[in-house]
Every structure is written in structure tokens, then in C-alpha cells.
Amino acid sequence: MPDHLRENTYPGERLGRPEQGPGSVGRLGRRIGALAIDYAAATLLATAFLGFNQFALPGEAGVTQFAPITVFAVLQVVFIPLIGGSPGHRIVGLRLELLHGGWTGLWRPIVRTLLLVLVLPAVVFDADQRGLHDKAAGTILVRA
Q: Region labeled Disordered — which residues (predicted)?
């Protein structure tokens, strides 16, 4: 049976990725953990340096409600090219690379992050657990 008709037995198989261990597709639990770490860090940084107050009433002083997501996006765009992933990715043992290996470059993290903050592209994914944001950027999140 041709490869494109055969059902995958694990995420990443048709991409030539191992089933487990380094280089295998990062699974949902690690991805959610990385996202939680990154967003918590972004909220703390927005609070500490931008005066963001998530409990402020409308009209009160403080930075807008978009401060944490803006800091989150900056963290993604800066750290992915520098260390191969966001701080959350690296803490949970993931790294972002091009689909067939290698450095992501500078523009891919920007495209990926813009789609990630829209949320929907990140929650719609294929059998290889690649979200639309990763597919558009030509990247894959793998175990380090």
C-alpha cells in the first residue's frame, strides 16, 4: 500500500520521526505545559515591568489587557531563533526546528507566533500533531 494511504501508527511516522525519544513529535501534555510556563512568565513580566494589573477595573491606570499576550509573543519571537524554542519549550524538553531539521531562521518564528496568538491555528492539528501554525511556518515541535 502506498505510504500516503497507509494509516500512521504514531504521530510523526510519515515525517520520518522516531516514535519516542529525541526527535520524536512533542506530545500534547508537554505542549500544554510549555504554553502554561510561557504564559505565566509573560504575565509576571507584564505585571513587573509594564504595570499590567489583571484585576484593574476599566478606566483604572495600568497597561491594557493585551500586555501579557504581547510579552508572550516577544518571548516566542526572541527565544525560538536563539535557543531553539521558547523558555517553556526548553524547560519541558522540547525544541522547535524545521520540518526536516535545522535552524528555524528569523521569519518562521514571527509567522508561527502571529498564528499562535490567534489560538485557532494552534488547536487545529493533523495526525502528526502539527498545528496549522507549525504547518504554515514549516516547523515541527520535537523532543529535545
A: 1-24
